[in-house]
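An instance follows:
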Amino acid sequence: MGGGGEDEYESLPTHSVPIQVHLTAGALAGAVEHCVMFPFDSVKTRMQSLCPCPETKCPTPVHSLMSIVKREGWLRPLRGVNAVAAGSMPAHALYFTVYEKMKGYLTGNSAGHSNTLAYGASGVVATLIHDAIMNPAEVVKQRMQMAFSPYGSSLECARCVYNREGVAAFYRSYTTQLAMNVPFQAIHFMSYEFWQHVLNPEHKYDPKSHLIAGGLAGGLAAALTTPMDCVKTVLNTQQAAEADPANRRIFLQARYRYRGISDAVRTIYSQRGLSGFSCGLQARVIFQVPATALSWSVYELFKFMLSFEGGHSS
C-alpha cells in the first residue's frame, strides 16, 4: 500500500496538484518551522539587538537559553510565539504555493541540476510575497522577545507600536528583510533542490531526504545571511536599555530611531565593530537547521497525503 501511495504521488505532476494542497501544506509547514524552535530565535534576537543583556556574554546559545529561563521563567523564551504563528501560516501558505507554481512555469515541470537558476528565481518571487505578510509579525515578535520588554501581550505590543510610531514601523525593516531573504531563499531553494537531486533522484516522497536536504539548505542560507539579519533586528527592535539610578531598574527606551539600513549598519559597527555583524550566528543556525528540516518534512508530508487523497477520491 505504501508503494502504491508513492507511485500515485509520483504520477501527479506539479501543475496538477490543486492549489489548496499547496496552501494547506504550506500553512502547516510555516507554523511548525517558526514555532518548534522558537526559543532559540528569542536567543538570537537578544544577541543581535543593541540592548545590553546577560545573554550576550554566554558562551553558547544553549547557555543563553538557560540564562533566560533561570532569570525570567520557563515561558519567557516563548513570548511573541503567537504573533509569529499568526503571521507564518498565511505567509508560508502563499510562499510555498507561489514557489511551486513559479518553479513549474520556469522549468516546464522538469527536474534536474540545469534548473538551478529557475529554483532560485522562484524562491525570490515567493519571498517578495512572504515578507510583505510576515514583516509586521516579525516586528511584534522581536519586540516581545527583547529583555525588559514592557509589553504584556502581542496585541498590546502591536497597538503600542502603531500608536507611537505609525504603520511605517511595521515595515521599517522591509527592505532589509528583502535584502536578507532574497539571497537567503535563493540559496535555500537551490540547495534544497540540489540535495534532493542527490539524495532522492526519483523525486518520490522520501521523509529522510526531505529532512536532510531541508536542514542542510537552511543551515547554509542562515550562516551566509546573518549580517543582514543583525541589521534587521536593530531596525525591528528600535530599542536601547537605560538604567534608572533611583530604583536600580533597567527600562527599554525607543528614543533611538534607526531610520534605515545605513543608519543601522553605522550604529552596529560603531558599537561592536565587524564582529557585530556575526552576532547570533550560532543561534540562527541552531534555529534554522531543524526548523527548515521540519518545515520541508511537514510540507512534503501533507502535500503527499492531500494529493494522494485528492487523486484517490477523483
About this structure: The first strand starts at residue 240 and ends at 244. Residues 211 and 293 are 5 Å apart (CA to CA). The two ends are 18 Å apart (CA to CA). The longest helix spans residues 281-313.
